[in-house]
Design a protein that fits this description.
The protein is of the alpha+beta class. It has two domains: 146 residues, Hypothetical Protein Pfu-838710-001, CATH 2.40.320.10; 126 residues, Nucleoside Triphosphate Pyrophosphohydrolase (Alpha-Beta Complex). Helix content is 19%, strand content 44%. A nine-stranded antiparallel sheet has the order 5-4-3-2-6-7-8-1-9. Strands 10, 11, 12, 13, 14, 15 and 16 form a seven-stranded mixed sheet that branches. The two termini are 37 Å apart.
Length: 288
């Protein structure tokens, strides 16, 4: 599953409570994000009666971070700055054979989601691991199940309901322009998008769709993304890609047209209100 030689964590949806869960005392955790952009985040967390302030940086080759204890009073002063970017859960820690297992029961808007995380010593143990009956779909590589993603965007959608798309962009005369393509019917302007593929990460799927549908190559930043619900009920996770090259020929060149539009014109071409709102959010982040 992974080439890592160090400890590995694997995350699953919990479909039923294991017997040992009744004996594991739960700790209430509430966490909120003050800042989360461009691979950097600042968050506060209450874990039972303890309070923490954490900073994390994912912009380099490895994740770095720092966490300090703070007082209840300091936490309460910082908590209002996390409005709209919070998540609450009840955490149980227990053994699964010789392995450590962590179960989070989410409350509030994220209920009734329950996730189990298994801690494995190395890749060999991960390959040999056989999941128990109470473990459902594995979501280790699905970004929408990351704590920060859920805090900001809400609970993940059921498997199969979420599409993955690319917002290709460039600057012309210092003004943001977006690349749109026509739908397969040719009567709408849309962004390249597709469904999750087995053994591919979401951003890998998005890059693949950009090449196949729009013939565009570029730099994708995984932290520069947003998620929205479209008018047909489906969800779209949209990644921003800075265009580096437009291919002269591409797999769907015969069935789609592509065109660069100034941001204001692109928003007029997008007929879906939810998608237009998501594009505005990404445009603000791109222009920073």
């Amino acid at each position: 599953m992974t080439k890592s030689t160090g400890p590995i964590r694997r995350k699953f949806i919990l479909v039923s409570a294991p017997t040992q869960m009744a004996l594991a005392r739960g700790v209430e955790i509430e966490q909120g994000y003050i800042i989360r952009e461009r691979g950097q985040e600042l968050r506060v967390r209450r874990e039972g009666g303890r309070y923490f302030l954490s900073a994390r940086d994912r912009t380099g080759k490895s994740v770095t971070g720092q966490e300090i204890r703070i007082t209840k009073g300091q936490f309460e002063k910082l908590w209002p700055f996390t409005l709209g970017q919070r998540i609450k859960r009840l955490r149980h820690i227990m053994k699964l054979g010789r392995l450590k297992m962590k179960i989070d029961e989410f409350t509030g808007e994220h209920a009734p989601l329950r996730l189990a995380e298994i801690f494995l010593p190395d890749a060999a143990a991960s390959k040999a691991f056989k999941k128990s009956d109470f473990l459902g779909e594995e979501v280790t590589r699905r970004e929408e199940y990351q704590t920060a993603e859920m805090a900001i965007h809400g609970p993940p959608e059921p498997s199969g309901m979420c599409q993955l798309g690319i917002l290709p962009y460039t600057f012309i005369d210092r003004k943001l322009h977006l690349l749109l393509i026509t739908s397969s019917s040719g009567n709408r302007w849309i962004f390249p998008k597709g469904r999750q593929e087995p053994d591919m990460t979401p951003h890998e799927v998005a890059v693949m769709e950009a090449v196949e549908e729009a013939g565009v190559l570029g730099t994708l930043r995984q932290d520069l993304r947003t998620r929205c619900q479209m008018s047909d009920g489906r969800y779209l996770q949209l990644y921003a890609m800075k265009i580096s090259k437009l291919l002269k020929s591409w797999p769907e060149a015969n069935v789609r047209r592509r065109r660069l539009f100034p941001l204001s014109d692109a928003l007029e071409m997008i007929g879906d209100p939810g998608l237009a709102k998501a594009v505005r959010r990404l445009a603000v982040a791109i222009n920073k």
